[in-house]
Write a structure and sequence with these properties.
Structural class: mainly alpha
Number of helices: 4
Radius of gyration: 29 Å
Strand content: under 5%
Number of domains: 2
Helix content: over 70%
Length: 118
């Protein structure tokens, strides 16, 4: 009789194991989809500023870069000027994201980025 009970109860245990495996696979697939969506979102946001700059028409792009360089030189590179270092670093990185940023532009931006912040 005990052998009969063991035989009858075995398929129930196998079904429970199958259910656990299916549940694990489902959870793994959901996790993978969430991770892929997260990576895609981060990847998209990293290139967003550069793509926005590329979409600007050339005169507007030149004006934005000129204004950014003017700010770098008049605010960030003056030793007597009080300026927020984080803002200056953001402006320097922004200037470097322009394809039109020439050697003088790169030198000004790198000078700002070279200055250590507290």
């Amino acid at each position: 009789m005990a052998a009969l009970v063991r035989i009858v109860s075995s398929p129930a245990r196998e079904d429970a194991g199958d259910d656990r495996r299916r549940s694990f696979v489902r959870e793994a697939v959901v996790l993978a989809v969430v991770l892929v969506a997260l990576v895609a979102s981060v990847w998209n946001s990293w290139g967003g500023e550069r793509r926005a700059i590329a979409r600007l028409d050339p005169p507007t792009r030149a004006a934005v870069l000129a204004r950014t360089l003017e700010d770098l030189r008049s605010v960030c590179l003056r030793p007597d000027a009080a300026h927020p270092a984080s803002w200056c670093r953001q402006q320097a990185e922004f200037a470097l994201s322009f394809d039109e940023c020439d050697a003088a532009c790169r030198a000004a931006a790198r000078e700002v980025l070279r200055v250590p912040t507290r």
